[in-house]
Amino acid sequence: MKQFRIEEHPILEVPVLDMISFYFNGEKMQARRAEMISSALIANGINVFGHHHKDGSAQGIFCANGQCAKCTVIANGIAVKSCMTPLVENMIVQSAEGLPTLAEEVEPMEFKPIEELECEVLIIGGGPAGLSAATELGKHGVDTLLIDDKNALGGKLVLQTHKFFGSEADSRAGTRGHHIGQILAEELKQYPSVTTWVDSTALFVFSDQKVGILKDGVYKLVSPRRILNAAGAREKFLRFPGNKLARIYGAGAFQTLVNRDLVRPTERLFIIGGGNVGLIAGYHALQAGIEVVGLAEAMPSCGGYKVHADKLSRFGVPVHTSHSILCANGNETVESITITQVDKNFRAIEGTEKTYACDTILIAVGLDSLSEFTIEAEMAGIPVDSAGDALEIAEASSAMFNGKIAGLKIAKAMKGESVEDIPESWYAKAEVLKAHPGAIKAYQEILDESGVIPIIHCLQEIPCNPCTTVCPTNSIKTEDGSLFALPRYTGSCIGCGKCLLICPGLAITLVDYRKDPQTPIVTIAYEIMNMSLKVGDKRMLMDIEARELGEFEVLAVVPYVKQNTQLVRFAVPAGIARKVAGFRVQDPQVSVALEEAIVPDRISDEAMICLCERVTVGEVRALIRKGINDLNQIKAITRAGMGPCGAKTCEVLIKSLLREEGIPVTDVVPNTKRPIFIEVPLGTFPAGGGK
Fold first, then answer.
1. Distance between CA 69 and CA 66 in Å, rounded?
2. What residue ranges of the chain have pLDDT lower than 70?
3. In this predicted structure, what is the pLDDT of residue 102?
4. Using CA atoms, how far apart are residues 677 and 331, in angstroms rounded to an integer?
5. CA 657 to the chain's CA centroid
6. What is the pLDDT of residue 681?
7. Which of 245, 238, 249, 247 is nearest to 366 (CA)?
8. Could you tell me the domains of the chain?
9. pLDDT at site 100
10. Chain Cα centroid distance, residue 677
11. Going by C-beta distance under 8 Å and a sequence separation of 6 or more, which residues neighbour residue 390?
12. What is the pTM of this model?
């Protein structure tokens, strides 16, 4: 069977595969050893893992983070989340078709004592915030246990192949995210007071101040004196007709497949959401050799950094602002998407519908903090802090820094006067790092047309300064010396290209007038080397707004292996040289709409609001209009929120529907959460030591 794997990547090393055999619905297949079942199935071309027992609709992957239950399969006779379950040799995997049949005879369970441990600080989550906090605690000798539910530390850093923004000193700006994750995890090893557990999931913070943790499938109880919740966030979903089709992914799932597992999950991708997550995912798709048909953002402009949106546009990916998804079309899996222009109230404008052929839709419309462990700890009376996305949704550079602050704060609380106070400058820096993008300004006016001039296409105020730290002649400085101000050229450039190589937004070009002032040479940084360039190739050069400047031949391609970047040179007329921001990579034909738009005759109320229990928007809306504003009552009547994901997805959608119907948030009766974070087989507790 053909394998859908990424065989060449411009940034990531493609390993030699250690393959094993497994069986899916009786068919023998090949997979990487210890690969997650979901990734192995998609690598084998299986995108429908089963069918829902209520309506027979196709089930596949959505979050790849254990937060939903769309990817459930039967592995060696047990229902598991395929995205969190590694394969073993000759594993028997079956679709979870219909409701399972209970065994007639059950072997008696052996009850053993549960292992109990104590620690000063328990950190839940080994991402950028958790690792940074653990490092501070380790520096001060605080007995710390850090747990993470993945098989490697780093959290979402593991999935990031782009260079980071922020400052070089505080958040390693200019270094690629997956490298930062490796650096932080390696640094932590030097602190003996910090213990790390991977493949370990926190299940609940109990009222007796013990935390139930599933470590490598074994249940344990940990009694911490203090907790840091650095568990991150979960992705939001959307309600639209066709939202139950397979091959609708969250951005995290997509990045997990392409950047962690090097699986090619799609040929033609369409993205909904123009924040940094969606924009970066589009770039990651191009790096994986995947066609990105387009991106739709409901706001008049993208909420992510302008340099990300500009980069995607000039590479040839249309960004449709003031547009949203109308419906997903297909039988079992996505076959096309219809988007529509929306007005200022986000209502679809009739007659503006456009349909694009695609096989996958990526939903990147925001995140919700994982606040459960904070709430549970507070109720149990355990001192608790939060950091990273569990505290506030922001960039990973911000998560690292507020994790550092949280770690020092906790160390101070545990060790007293022996620990230094947190500098006020740290709090100020934290505010800058989490700041939303600021003003968009005009290009810097540079009259000189001699020598080498760096043209800075970064026009929006964002927290980023690596170009100022790497310049050997100090020729680039921010306007007022702060991290948030725009970088400006202030001196004599020697043409070394270091600023091009480190810029996270690929937002600097060099214009060299030395050889021929009338036809200067423009140098552009390029990272998608698997879409190869050679001398003599012609490319369409683009300006900052993705307007065509003309086709020109490649003069030189200079590789910088350590930076995984090439510097590409073109000779162009002086009149356009400073306008060149990049060149088109993707063929415009990829993004041509179908001749006739597919417009649903069904209303949006037929969209699913609870995917686990197959509850429609219309069913819940009808109850709201009868005066029901209690999420528990809605759950009791419709079962929305009763499914295996534990209302992690539908609760947000139901609350948004209540707002839409004019119910003030203060009048909504909150949902009573189930007493564990994720579903766990009952056999786990006695096998691991039940009472």
1. 7
2. 98-103, 106, 602-603, 687-691
3. 59
4. 33
5. 25
6. 77
7. 238
8. 19-99+237-363 (3.50.50.60), 115-233+369-433 (3.50.50.60), 452-591 (no CATH), 604-667 (1.10.10.1100)
9. 60
10. 21
11. 125, 129, 229, 230, 231, 232, 233, 369, 370, 371, 373, 374
12. 0.94
